[in-house]
Design goal:
Elements: H1 6-29, H2 35-38, H3 41-47, H4 54-67, H5 73-83, H6 89-99, H7 104-112, H8 115-148, H9 155-183, H10 191-219, H11 223-232, H12 234-241, H13 249-262, H14 264-272, H15 277-295, H16 298-308, H17 317-324, H18 328-365, H19 376-401, H20 408-420, H21 423-431, H22 437-461, E1 465-468, E2 472-475, H23 481-502, H24 507-517, H25 534-545, H26 547-561, H27 570-588
Antiparallel strand pairs: 1-2
Helix pairs in contact: 1-9, 1-10, 3-10, 3-15, 4-16, 4-18, 5-13, 5-15, 7-8, 8-9, 8-18, 8-19, 8-20, 8-22, 9-18, 9-19, 10-16, 10-17, 10-18, 13-14, 13-20, 14-18, 16-17, 17-18, 18-19, 22-23, 25-26, 26-27
Length: about 600
């Protein structure tokens, strides 16, 4: 029997890892694992580690190389949001739970009372997510190429390496499509998904700390050896205080702060899949601690990469350091850590985006056919699975469309600046009752136009300069991201405030704005009641949902409220109507 080649071992190892993930999720959904474990707030808090994508695992080393101590903004921004969880995340969780809002688009539609807001937010968010999805695919494919690289390979071997690069990218896409479709497309809570995300958070932490420990104690011989090396290389410390890249640390903090609240995968795990405030209480100290532990090994890894003279760029030093030292098992662990980071982000982001596309694009178009559908639940599940596949394939096509030369940091910052445009609208939900839909649309459209024209298209097409009237030249591309981010975000906020102040809210929008800014976020609404029995409510739902689905939804709402079908008191019927609206919002979107 012929021994397996390195390429075959890599592919088999990747398949084995995906098999473990499928097994863990399957055992969880079959309740084989104890419910006390799978429903633990601590485990759900660990699942929030999905925030650390392949860029957070690999590319953050390059961020320190470029921006010095300014790279700490990544941990300060993301961790800072969780420190302020009682002021930001907990009120949002109360809203999302009370009204079954499963995405940022649902939240914006609910607050600004406009289905068009959901359509526009979904399209913009999809554009912002494509670079981040492409980043995950690029990281997995690049690490496969790094592991399989051989010095000066013959032409045939070089072609085989690039074939492996593409095969692993496709394997990654197919595996994430299958996993997300099987364990994230149904209506019920996705316990298997949350357990896998928590497991992957632990893998990322163990892998990064193991490489950092190796760099410190094997490459440098401990803290004394590292101190001696730094004394011989003072330029390394000088770079930390005076980085080569010119950027604003304040803008970096704002970028990373926004990603932890508005990017689809974080909203999905932190709010849509979460049912307990206790999880966020744990996250208010647990996530900053988790990010602190991830930050500690980064600088030793960066310096070890320079000491060993690894052949890879700094963004892949996490893998390059053990490879350069010839440590096979640690290289495998580092590869699995990066794979875990990429899988988690891709799967959850595809699930979240598919829900947004389904609720705000497809379901409004298919509204007229629901009355004749017998299995609405099955239809929605398969539509969501189809959208998951299209979204991940879209990420792959974006990855293939990129010009050669974009780093992981370039793609991450590109995506983060796009998502930053949603921050004013999201904050206004809780803290600006005067904000209205006209202001949101104007600000978001202007900010996204600057992002697309000055960052996204230049990245794809290679534009570098835009000549404006009066001989003004605007430098384009990710290389000038700090100025362009400030420009797009400033225009966004200015138009949001000015248009909101100069236009009026509708009565419905004003009522919901007050509802969102109350302390508990779930004050009962007293709307006109024009039904007199539960049966009449069911009849009202039948034309839209069909008789069977309408009956099931009414039965579900009655069970949620612990009410009987013969309770016809106005108060009871109001509660039933509000519960039905919330449940249908969770099933079909707030629009």
């Amino acid at each position: 029997m012929l021994p397996l080649s390195e390429d075959q071992i890599l592919l088999l190892g990747s398949c084995a890892y995906f098999g473990v993930l499928f097994l863990v999720a399957w055992l969880t959904d079959r309740t084989t694992l104890p419910r006390a474990l799978t429903d633990s707030p601590l485990l759900h808090m660990l699942a929030l580690g999905v925030l650390v994508s392949a860029w957070g695992f690999y590319g953050v080393v390059d961020l320190f190389n470029q921006y010095g101590y300014g790279a700490l903004s990544y941990y300060m921004g993301a961790g800072g949001l969780f420190l302020f969880a009682p002021q930001i995340l907990m009120p949002l969780l109360r809203l999302t739970r009370a009204y079954q809002l499963n995405s940022l688009a649902d939240l914006l539609v609910f607050r600004y009372r406009s289905p068009f807001v959901g359509v526009m937010a979904t399209g913009c968010m999809l554009l912002c997510a494509l670079p981040l999805l492409a980043l995950q695919i690029q990281a997995v494919a690049d690490t496969a190429l790094i592991i399989s690289y051989r010095p000066e390979p013959p032409m045939a071997t070089r072609q085989n390496l690039f074939a492996l690069h593409d095969r692993l990218a496709w394997l990654f896409c197919i595996a994430t499509i299958l996993f997300a479709g099987l364990f994230g497309a149904k209506r019920e809570r996705h316990r298997g998904l949350i357990v896998v995300m928590a497991l992957e958070s632990l893998i990322k932490l163990v892998a990064l700390c193991a490489v950092g420990f190796f760099a410190l104690h094997t490459v440098f011989g401990g803290f004394d050896g590292l101190e001696k090396w730094l004394s011989l290389h003072p330029e390394q410390l000088e770079t930390l205080y005076h980085p080569t890249a010119n950027s604003s640390s304040h803008m970096l903090v704002t970028l990373f702060f926004s990603t932890a609240i508005v990017l689809p995968h974080m909203f999905h795990v932190g709010l849509a899949e979460n049912t307990r405030l206790h999880t966020l209480r744990l996250a208010s100290w647990g996530m900053p601690l988790y990010l602190l532990c991830l930050s500690l090994p980064v600088l030793p890894i960066l310096w070890a990469g320079f000491e060993l003279g690894t052949a890879v760029t700094p963004e892949y030093f996490v893998l390059g350091v053990p490879l350069a030292a010839g440590h096979v098992s640690l290289s495998a662990l580092a590869y699995l850590g990066g794979l875990a980071a990429a899988v988690g982000t891709t799967v959850v982001m595809a699930i979240a985006l598919s829900t947004m596309c389904l609720n705000h694009w497809l379901l409004p178009l298919l509204h007229g056919v629901f009355g004749g559908m017998v299995d609405l639940y099955g239809l929605i599940t398969w539509l969501r699975r189809s959208l998951i596949a299209l979204i991940i394939i879209g990420g792959y096509l974006f990855y293939r469309a990129l010009n050669i030369g974009q780093t992981l940091t370039d793609l991450a910052i590109l995506s983060f600046i796009g998502s930053l445009q949603f921050l004013p609208g999201a904050f206004a939900v809780l803290y600006s009752p005067r904000a209205n839909r006209q202001g949101l649309v104007a600000g978001l459209c202007a900010g996204m136009a600057v992002w697309v024209g000055c960052l996204l298209l230049p990245t794809l097409l290679g534009w570098r300069l835009l000549l404006l009237p009066w001989d003004i030249a605007l430098r384009l591309g990710v290389e000038n991201w700090s100025q362009l981010a400030a420009l797009s975000f400033g225009i966004n906020i200015a138009l949001f405030v000015l248009v909101s102040r100069s236009t009026t809210q509708s009565a419905d929008e004003q009522r919901i704005a007050e509802q969102c800014t109350t302390e508990n976020g779930a004050r009962p609404l007293r709307l006109t009641l024009d039904v007199r029995s539960v049966g009449e409510i069911e009849m009202r739902l039948t034309p839209a949902l069909g008789a069977d689905i309408a009956a099931q939804e009414v039965k579900r709402a009655l069970a949620d409220l612990n009410q009987t079908a013969d309770d016809a008191r106005p108060y009871a019927l109001r509660r039933l109507r509000e519960r039905l609206e919330a449940n249908l919002s969770g099933l079909m979107g707030a629009a």
